[in-house]
């Protein structure tokens, strides 16, 4: 994750074993991006989201952690 005064970004990268187990980076990003008032997308192993609505990254990170832990 990164944050600047103008923008926030979040990248999710997963290993093959997690993807083979059914955890997909693009699914997590699709659920996280709206929390950031942003947009995102990607592939099974790598996805990213970005937003110009600064200040929402901590909530998005907590939700990403919850979603990933729920699925592993």
Structure write-up:
The protein is α+β, with helices and mostly antiparallel strands and 72 residues long. The chain is built from three helices and four strands. Strands 1-2-4-3 form a four-stranded antiparallel beta sheet, with helices on one face. Strand 1 (2-3) and strand 2 (8-13) form a beta hairpin. Helix 2 runs antiparallel to helix 3 (57-71).
Low-confidence stretches are: none
Helix content: 25-40%
Strand order of the largest sheet: 1-2-4-3
The proportion of residues in beta strands is: 25-35%
Give the overall form.
elongated
Sketch the topology as an H/E string, one letter per element. EEHHEEH
| Cα end-to-end separation | 21 Å
Briefly characterize the structure.
The chain has helices at residues 16-20, 25-32, 57-71; strands spanning 2-3, 8-13, 39-42, 46-51. With 72 residues, it is an alpha+beta fold. The chain is elongated and about 35 Å long.
What's the arrangement of secondary structure elements?
Layout: E1 2-3, E2 8-13, H1 16-20, H2 25-32, E3 39-42, E4 46-51, H3 57-71
Helix pairs in contact: 2-3
């Amino acid at each position: 994750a990164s944050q600047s005064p103008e923008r926030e970004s979040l990248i999710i990268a997963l290993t093959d074993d997690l993807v083979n187990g059914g955890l997909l980076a693009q699914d997590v990003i699709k659920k996280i991006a709206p929390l950031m008032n942003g947009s995102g997308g990607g592939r099974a192993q790598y996805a990213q989201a970005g937003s110009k609505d600064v200040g929402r990254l901590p909530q998005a990170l907590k939700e990403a952690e919850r979603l990933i832990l729920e699925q592993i």
